[in-house]
Write a structure and sequence with these properties.
Elements lengths: L1 E6 L4 H12 L3 E7 L11 H4 L13 H5 L4 E4 L3 H13 L4 E3 L6 H10 L4 E4 L5 H17 L4 E8 L9 H13 L4 H4 E2 L14 E7 L5 E8 L4 E8 L3 H14 L5 E3 L1 H4 L3
Parallel strand pairs: 1-2, 1-3, 3-4, 4-5, 5-11, 6-8, 7-8
Antiparallel strand pairs: 6-9, 9-10
The protein binds NADP nicotinamide-adenine-dinucleotide phosphate (NAP).
Length: 266
């Protein structure tokens, strides 16, 4: 049995993870972390996830949440993620990170800690999106800069970072396939007198509303034709299943920084 600590247990993703762990015959919930101000502190994590009691109480104490874990899965906020990773590193517990909105300082901290610990970071845990990443690399290289790339993402009204980590990853892959860096060619907003679209630019547009789980669309607009590659997530459980797959995979790996491409055969 694999003991899993769910970090961010009271959140939308955390609750899906508790359900996933409960359903899986090889996984067992060993710890459940929420913020120090969470309304769920002291409650049974299974009740929070509406799956019935599991005998694990939600805590804001990282040490308690990580005790006895074989692996930790983090879906929180960037500031919490780094503190969680540091606590896991002290206990040599591998970590799967799904949290998005990580800035360069966070990525640098993760890279540093991954010298001593297996860490997997994935802005999107779904099989479909990770397949889309490969398709984007192929299409962006094959179509070249005569085809303008525009990335559109849509998420629910409660999402706090934009563009989504997935949209940024798509942009990085598309730019990289053309020998460019997203930092040089990305356009994140357009309003007023923008002038003509620069050749080779990659546009990123964002929609927020309702309960949209996650949509990503990549448009290649050429002369006389356009191609679109699109993914639509309809249930957060797809990310939770992906995170559980990553958690099983990372146990016993050597220290290092991994991604979903290492886990999934795509
Ligand atoms: N990689 C993927 O496939 C994927 C898929 C979906 C979402 N995400 C990302 O995952 C993250 C979480 O998403 P969500 O929709 O589940 O968010 P959410 O509903 O807001 O949940 C956030 C969770 O983090 C906890 N938290 C916040 N600050 C904390 C702290 N300082 N210490 C410990 N716990 C803390 C919250 O606890 P309380 O609120 O109870 O205080 C809550 O349990 C976001 O970055 C989102 O973009 C990634």
């Amino acid at each position: 049995m694999i003991n899993v600590a769910v970090l961010g247990v009271s959140g939308r993703m955390g609750r899906c993870l508790v359900r996933t762990v409960r359903e899986a015959p090889d996984l067992s919930l060993s710890g459940a972390l929420a913020s120090a101000t969470s309304a769920t502190l002291g409650r049974d994590a299974g009740d929070v996830a509406e799956t019935g009691p599991v005998g694990v109480v939600v805590t804001a104490d990282r040490e308690a949440a990580l005790a006895g874990a074989d692996v930790a899965i983090d879906f929180t906020l960037p500031g919490a993620t780094i503190a969680n990773l540091e606590a896991a590193a002290k206990r040599r517990i591998p970590v799967v990170i799904g949290t998005t909105g990580l800035d360069e300082a966070c990525h640098a901290a993760i890279r540093g800690l991954s010298h001593d610990l297996p860490v997997l970071v994935a802005p999107n845990m779904s099989l479909g999106v990770n397949l889309l990443f490969g398709l984007v690399a192929k299409a962006s290289a094959a179509l070249g800069e005569d085809y303008d790339i525009e990335i559109l993402e849509a998420h629910h009204r409660n999402k706090v970072d934009a563009p989504s980590g997935t949209a940024l990853r798509i942009g990085e892959i598309a730019a990289g396939a053309r020998g460019r860096a997203l930092g040089d060619v990305g356009i994140y907003s357009r309003a007023g007198q923008t002038g003509r679209r620069p050749r080779g630019a990659i546009g990123l547009a964002v929609l927020r509303g309702g309960d949209i789980v996650g949509e990503h669309r990549v448009l290649y607009a050429g002369t006389g034709e356009s191609l679109e590659i699109a993914h639509r997530a309809t249930d957060r459980m797809t990310f939770a299943y992906g995170a559980a797959t990553a958690a099983r995979w990372i146990i016993g790996r050597p220290p290092g920084l991994y991604g979903m491409a290492d886990v999934l055969d795509v």
